[in-house]
Amino acid sequence: MKSTWGENVTVAIVGHVAVVTFSRPPNNHVSVEMMSDLADCMEAVDAGRQARAIVLQADGKNFCAGADFTTPGDSVAGGMDGISALYEQAVRLFSIETTIVAAVQGAAVGAGLGLAMVADFRVASPDAKFAANFVKLGFHPGFGLTHTLPRVIGAHRASLMFLSGRRVKADEGKPWGLVDEVVPLEDLREGALQLAAEIADNAPLALLATRRTMRGELAAAVRAQTGHEHIQQTALRATDDFAEGVKSVAERRSGDFAWR
Fold first, then answer.
1. Are strands 107-109 and 17-22 parallel, antiparallel or unpaired?
2. Structural domain span for residue 84
3. Exposed, middle or buried: residue 251 (CB in 10 Å: 0-12, 13-18, 19+)?
4. Taking the model in full, what pTM does it have?
5. For the chain, what is the domain count?
6. Is residue 79 a contact partner of residue 214, using CB atoms and an 8 Å limit?
């Protein structure tokens, strides 16, 4: 039986696993509302203590294509207040105590990569592509990625992703630790559920205690890092290069940047 959280999120309990699905067609761009619904849902999973692990998955061809800077009226596109509100929801997501396995297909880009990094583990299909493409937008990385990505793949590889904006395919990301398992697209959700069920087969109090030790003060670190990221993003958003970056990415061409 499924429960619905807001317009974009559903949850179903399978054994001791909560399967949380989000859907914001066509590309699952982040919004403050959707992230709030996700956080509300996962906090309820934490409080219910029925589930010992969570699968985080998305409908559609892409896991999450990041922020939508081109649609008028979008909460994130509207300005830095919207991004600040988005980061508040990010901190809530990183505060979840239940182990999370993400099932990633298609694009996990920008804030979508940030959302994938909320998970402890990532199961990906071969078509999955991970990118921190902020510099292509004339922007600074956000969603806490400047803390969470180096923590998983190391500072050197994180810098490579940040400064090049390149897309990292699932097979390339696996030896980096960005991806834990690569499975065929048709088996993606089952693969993520199997890993979550393997975790959920263990003693719940021991799972919570061990995860707290391993994650440490991650949510607090994300809060501090998003504060720094927001300052840098605010300065860059006022530049002509940001306007050109958003336009060039939308037009699928290289940006004509000129230090402005």
1. unpaired
2. 2-184
3. exposed
4. 0.95
5. 1
6. no
Number of Cβ within a 10 Å radius of residue 124: 31
Q: Please, which residues bridge with residue 55 across strands?
A: 19, 101
- Kindly report the CATH number assigned to the domain that includes residue 145: 3.90.226.10
Tens of pLDDT along 172-195? 999 999 999 999 999 999 999 999
Within a domain: residue 259?
no
Is 211 exposed, middle or buried (CB count within 10 Å of its CB: 0-12, 13-18, 19+)?
middle
CA distances from 113 to 147, 152, 209, 247 (A): 13, 12, 27, 21
Helix 80-94 × helix 218-237 angle, to 10°: 170
Whether the CB-CB separation of 248 and 257 falls below 8 Å is answered with no
Task: Round to whole Å and give the CA distance between 167 and 128.
Answer: 9
Residue 219 CA, chain-centre distance (Å), reads: 14
Closest among 116, 252, 244, 94 to 180, alpha carbons compared:
116
Q: Does 140 score more than 70 pLDDT?
A: yes
Q: CA of 180: how far to CAs of 63, 190, 232, in Å? A: 16, 14, 31
Please write the tens of the pLDDT for every residue from 145-154: 999 999 999 9
Model confidence over 47-104: pLDDT tens digits?
A: 999 999 999 999 999 999 998 877 766 667 667 888 999 999 999 999 999 999 999 9
Residue 138 lies in a domain: yes
Identify whether 257 is part of a domain: no
Within-domain flag for 212: no
DSSP 87-120: HHHHHHHHT--SEEEEEE-SEEETHHHHHHTTSS
